[in-house]
Specification:
CATH topology of the largest domain: Rhopdopsin 7-helix transmembrane proteins
Structural class: mainly alpha
Strand order of the largest sheet: 1-2
Number of helices: 16
Order of helices and strands: HHHHHEEHHHHHHHHHHH
CATH class of the largest domain: Mainly Alpha
Strand content: under 5%
Shape: rod-shaped
Largest sheet: 2 strands, antiparallel
Number of strands: 2
Length: 427
């Protein structure tokens, strides 16, 4: 016996056993898919073992009956192997129809085994193909055609994927099986099936993991949308205590979005302001006054000017807001977003000249997100009517923002906001 062939069979059987163990440990595949993949791999290993024993018996005819039984088992099992592979990949309905046809073939093989119609083992233990060997050829070709359908189904299901691996798998199996059907001495059929099964498993597992990842990403996106809705609801509830209708939350978020996009397009602070930052600061904007929930109504709703003691209490809403951020959104597992939201709540009352609160930060010590929020917050406070003041005209509000650039507000962002709002309001 050719030692290379023996080594090939040993390696292939070992590969199939290893793949079975790998499938068993797989955490992404469903239990039924695992079972069918393992059945496929062990079926291939069993078929290869049967083929190897046939080769041994061909060279050493110990028992004609044993040779006949092993050949029959191989002829019945081999065409059936695409069935469990199909079921492993989630193709159920056609698999049952195809299995009925192939089981009929197996029954026919069993009935004809002693007639020598499909194959014959003579008295000297020599194997030969029978007159109706075409029966086996038909079942094998039918099985291969079904295997092509399985590949097509998978490629259609994952239509956004590259088909090179699937095509390569088909080439491998046909390169191994077709020559074996034509010439018995060429024994590469199971080698082709081994490589095909491994490639298909790896490909399918990768696609399954990607599908799970895509589903998880979509679910996370839905959760983020729900969280955003809850956050805006909380912010509106807080604003309603300040005799507001909640328009402040909507307005400031809109101004933050406009200013952040304009700053990105203008190339201002490019090391900080990018698409991801813009989205985060817009999402964080509704939380800028979340700390006001702790401020007593008599101070929050006071129609006149606050006393020094009352103002000190009011200023605490920034510190409390920063602390609440971690309590409200710490489960998002997005540390960067939490940091932006914290900065917006904590520092949106800081001033460029260092005379703001709560920490008296100055200039670029103030986070960019808080500088953007400060402009949006003050502008909306100016143009909206409050219990303690009338609404300012847009022109006057913009004049105040422009005048305070470099003292209260960021000297680059404030002029950009004024210019943007003048265009928006056709001034």
């Amino acid at each position: 016996m050719n030692p290379i062939y023996s080594v090939m069979i040993f390696v292939c059987v070992l590969s199939m056993v290893t793949m079975s163990l790998l499938v068993r440990c797989n955490v992404t595949l469903a239990s039924k898919a695992k079972m069918w993949f393992m059945l496929t791999f062990m079926g291939i290993a069993f078929g290869m073992t049967a083929e190897f024993l046939r080769t041994v018996l061909d060279a050493n005819p110990i028992s004609n009956d044993l040779y006949k039984i092993i050949t029959l088992v191989e002829f019945c099992i081999t065409p059936m192997l695409p069935i469990p592979l199909s079921l492993a990949c989630g193709i159920k309905k056609p698999a049952f129809s195809v299995s009925a046809i192939l089981l009929t073939h197996a029954m026919l093989e069993i009935v004809l085994v002693n007639t020598g119609a499909v194959f014959n083992i003579d008295s000297n233990g020599m194997y030969s193909r029978g007159e109706y060997y075409i029966i086996y050829i038909f079942s094998y070709v039918f099985s291969l055609l079904y295997l092509m359908f399985v590949f097509y189904f998978i490629s259609k299901r994952f239509r956004n994927r590259n088909l090179i691996i699937l095509i390569a798998s088909l080439v491998v199996i046909f390169a191994g099986i077709i020559p074996s059907l034509i010439e018995r001495e060429i024994k590469t059929a199971f080698l082709g099936m081994t490589f095909m099964a491994i490639i298909l498993y790896c490909y399918y597992d990768d696609l399954t993991q990607q599908e799970l990842s895509d589903n998880l990403a979509a679910q996370n996106e839905r959760i983020k949308t729900m969280q955003a809705g809850v956050i805006i609801g909380i912010a509106n509830l807080i604003e309603s205590r300040d005799n507001s209708t909640g328009t402040h939350v909507k307005n400031t978020s809109n101004y933050v979005r406009m200013l952040a996009h304009a700053a990105k397009d203008a190339g201002i602070y490019p090391e900080t302001i990018n698409d991801n930052f813009v989205q985060m600061v817009v999402n964080a904007a509704p939380l800028h006054d979340i700390g006001k929930i702790s401020i007593p109504d008599e101070i929050l709703q006071k129609p006149g000017k606050l006393t020094e003691e009352e103002f000190e209490i009011m200023k605490r809403h920034t510190i409390i807001g920063g602390e609440m951020i971690y309590q409200v959104i710490e489960d998002t597992n997005d540390e960067e977003y939490i940091k932006v939201a914290y900065d917006v709540a904590m520092y949106h009352h800081e001033k460029w000249n260092g005379k703001g609160y709560p920490e008296g930060l100055a200039g670029e010590e103030i986070p960019v997100s808080a500088r953007i929020m400060a402009i949006a917050d003050v502008y909306d406070a100016l143009v909206m009517e409050r219990v303690y003041k009338k609404a300012f005209p847009v022109e006057k509000a913009l004049a105040i923002i422009e005048e305070d650039a470099g003292s209260h507000f960021d000297p680059l962002l404030a002029p950009l906001f004024v210019k943007m709002m003048k265009v928006t309001n056709s001034l």
